What we know:
Chain A has three helices and no strands. Chain A is mostly helical. In chain A, helix 1 (4-20) packs antiparallel against helix 2 (24-44) and helix 2 (24-44) runs antiparallel to helix 3. In chain A, 55% of the residues are buried. By secondary structure, chain B is mostly helical. Chain B contains eight helices and no strands. Chain C contains four helices and no strands. Chain C has a single domain, classed as Helix Hairpins (Orthogonal Bundle). Chain C is mainly alpha-helical. Chains in contact: A-B, A-C, B-C. At the B-C interface, helix 1, helix 2, helix 3, helix 4 and helix 6 of B face helix 2, helix 3 and helix 4 of C. Chain B: It is found in: Cell membrane. Chain B: Residues 115-233 form the Na+/H+ antiporter MnhB subunit-related protein domain. Chain B: It is a multi-pass membrane protein.
Amino acid sequence: MSLLLPLLLLVAITGTAIVFSRVPRRQVVAIAANGIALSLLFMAFQAPDVAFAELAAGSAVTPLLFLVVLASVRTDLTTERVERPDGEEDAAS
Amino acid sequence: MSPRLRRLLFLACCALVLPAVLHVAAHMPRFGDHSMPYGDLINAVALAERHTTNMVSAINFDYRGFDTLGEEMMLLCAVGGATVLLRGSRGETESEPQRVPGRPIIARADSTVLASRLFGAVVILFGLYVVLHAMTTPGGGFQGGAIIASGLLCVFLGEGYPGWRRVAPSELFDALEGGGAALYALCGFASLVMGLPFLQNMLPFGQKGDLFSGGLMQFENAGVGAAVTGGFVILLIEFLEETREPVPDGDEEGDDP
Amino acid sequence: MSAVLHAPPVTLLPWLVAAWLFGIGLYGIVTSRHYVHLIGCLGVVQASTYVLLLAVGYRWNATAPIFYSHPPGRAVDPVVQALVLTDIVIGVTVTALLLALVLQLHKRKGTLDPERVRPMQP
């Protein structure tokens, strides 16, 4: 029960970290940390089913999807930059 | 609208809404100490009525089974939509595993490969355990499917992209995704054929606390497990394929992104 | 310890954390300069609903709603748990759908900055 207090604060802090890490590659780490914090909080809320789902989905699969998207945005840049005359630099890299 | 103006507008709205939020928070039911009639009713009767010891599964697959059918269809639609968007630009043809252009190929350390193989096998096995124990202990198709998918990720970490594509053929997981959703829907129609309401449980409930208790819920759970596993792995395959560029006569060894 | 936690400010905390996550996620969406970052912020808004629902279903000194080794008794609300459970898994696939849209946008427009994306031409 006394677990709830620090875990709620931890979830609030990691959630804030997601918003304020403006570089997407660093944000991925914050997303994974928030997933782990949330699954610990769900354990403390007596919801083991939900904690399982959050642990697998929120801290493994979602960060990987973000990483893969960032990687493909980068490879996309290397191949398409030539065709793009506007020369806008991208915030991804 | 300039970003600065937008931020100011947002903060002004927050200042406006904040008193209302605080008022609502102060008048919420007392945390951890209020009545919850629906949940208490299920906690009291579900074990006797449905012979499952996991109340969450009983709700997901029986009391709110129709709701889960809707969730199942949302899963199918979201996965289908993402797949269509990604394959639409790439072409439907099943491509050979490609490598990322302009990236050095770094050989993996033997210890990485070994650890990934060990952990991958254990995690996939644990995922199957979680799917199978839906009716007794914490677990079920939703959680287990996600765990199996993350176990397959370990294979990708250890074996690299070509090895992963050999282990996870796209067709198999397409079939799992569609077949799982179909199995769930067919469970409902099976009840209709027997002259019962949609998704009504007509199989024997079995022994309380037994692995195979719950009757029809077992099949619905298996359908959800297959659909979630298939859906997650399809998404991973499609997104990872997006990072690859076709290289003529590219060598066999790929690398992770 | 239990008496400390029963103090009113602490019992308010779950609702305030849910409201905070919602607000800060919305702030991130409003001020985001990168679509991938924006989807991450959307995940924070989503997490606020999980915290709110599970906090509504929580009960002091109660067990998880699993009656494998003990008879049914005082347990937390399983209904909200079932809701959150399905939403987490669906949320991942919807996030993936949004990310696929982002990839398409990047292919068509070559940028991921919401400020630079022009309205679509008919």
